[in-house]
Specification:
Structural class: mainly alpha
Distance between the termini: 70 Å
Number of domains: 2
Number of strands: 0
CATH superfamily of the largest domain: Cyclin-like
Strand content: under 5%
CATH class of the largest domain: Mainly Alpha
Amino acid sequence: MYHSSTQRKFWTFKSDKELTKGREAANDRFRNERQNKTSFNEEYFLTVEEERVLLRWYDDKLIKEFCHRFKPKVPVNCIATSCHYVKRLFLRYSVMEYNPKLMILASIWLACKTEEFNISMDQFVWNIHHLLPDEKLAHGEDYARKYGDAILAVELILIKELNFHLTIHNPFRAFEGLLIDMKTRYESAALKKPEILREPTVDYLYSAIFTDAILLYTPSQLALAALLYAGAKLNIILDSYVTEHLLKDQPRQVLEDTIKNVKKIRSIVRKNMKCPLENMVKSIEMKLEKCCNKTSNPLTEEYARLKSLEVEERERIATQKWREEAERQKQLQKDLLDY
């Protein structure tokens, strides 16, 4: 249940100020760590706003388009879960720390497993090859397989950075509950078939899952906001359902808070409708390429060199331990002979 979930306890925030504070802290932490190693101008790094613009672009051009054209079709619950993972990760870390394209694809892969949408990595790689041809320029002919290996390399890192909180309560199930409730308890001359609300409600929820609303409001609040939006779009007034059925016998303050939350959700979704300009995003991507942490990206040579050094260090330590043990055994045998 949502009210006893890690989603409510750790990943539902009281205001957008908390989200802004978290993102600013992540951005500052990365800047400070790099500044301690080498001196850079402030303009060298991405700003919090540039990070937001980049992720907004990837919402449309990577998550939406990739999942929409994916074969077999990715269920909407998988898409929503991957959105949660992406927003959680980049609430705690800057896009300069972890490559956003790679971590978004890893989030989609992980969400498919979490939501039990069974696909193999070979299928995932096939879709990368056919749906992301532009990556060929950056990573060569075998770019899809490289991405597959990279996703597997960062999967456990992603799970760890999410604090192993993988279960997501999405608003689509909450909407199904509201729809069943309307069919069984609500009678209205203006609404003979509640099923007509399904398509516009689901479309609205699909827009909402790409916004910060999923970090600020409960699944039921999101579902209700979407349902009321669908009613307004179809010129069906659902106020009586809310006041006389859904929130019947509740204190007036509960009704006022519900109305306030619905308005805030609509505002958030409306502000998120506009996609950034492509030339602006390309400029940010070029800037990111210079300032990002390449040692955390399995697609880079820097990562390969770091892993090679780590392997050499482990082998050196293992060899040293073996020699020390051999010396100890040799000394033990000598002591026994002397005795």
